[in-house]
């Protein structure tokens, strides 16, 4: 684990803020942002009987609802995107310049609206009410049962691969090492904890409660945020995108969408200048894993993976950044195989061809598969 973290740090350059356009001849042409929602209340699927907050309805947010701190954090993400990409975005909102999509979770939809509100407060001819610095901006989503772009881990081909990975000797050995700990968790929580999915849900309810300043169970202090529960969720992430096929299905579908918009612009065709994908830490983790940039951690609230398309002397380049969310820090990434953060677009596509699905591979029929059993 330490080796992976060191590799990430060596391949990254931390910048607290910088505008995307600079004076070295590169011109920014497109930005895609894949981001996690903000702080939220615990979700029903995560609840456990022995939780001191078990009877809490989390009024007025509701179970799984976006908290005020979560709203502020997402709005701040929008402000930082506006600061960084001001020249690309222009002053006025234009419908054909933006592709905005979320999952069918209320908190993800709300976060997309918050980011859009920060990006495009009405100016000049778009001011429709003097005392309201806001304008409606449409966004799209697909019902979860039909969302193969942002929730592809419910696709049958992915679930089959996931089942096979769980049976691998090396994976079973790692799960077995956590069996005694899971038995203890079952006793402590009052619900059955028998697989890494259960530890995943347990970890995230503790994150949510801690962020809300709520009382945590006594046992949590020994295993959270670091400790055996952290080890369990890291194993979950390892299994999540273990194989090339899983990365191709998982983060690869988002990558396909991003690269399609970039390709259209490179060919001189009409395409959005900005792509926004409001989702979950699973989306952030998946795209990092697909890009070969994953290191052991849990993506924070409002964290984002940003892919930029630049042009210089009629040649195109892709740059990847990781916005940590907590803290508010941009980290430039070097995709494995690229010599620098600014990677020639053709080379970028070549390096990631194996994990980028074709157009024919994008859709799937989720109705024939069962849900994954975890929450985001």
From TrEMBL:
CDD domains found in the cross-reference section: HP_HAP_like
Entry similarity comment: Belongs to the histidine acid phosphatase family.
GO molecular function list: acid phosphatase activity
Signal peptide, first to last residue: 1-20
Protein name (Swiss-Prot/TrEMBL): acid phosphatase
Keywords: Disulfide bond, Glycoprotein, Hydrolase, Signal
Pfam families: His_Phos_2
Reaction catalysis annotation: a phosphate monoester + H2O = an alcohol + phosphate
PROSITE patterns in the record: HIS_ACID_PHOSPHAT_1
EC numbers: 3.1.3.2
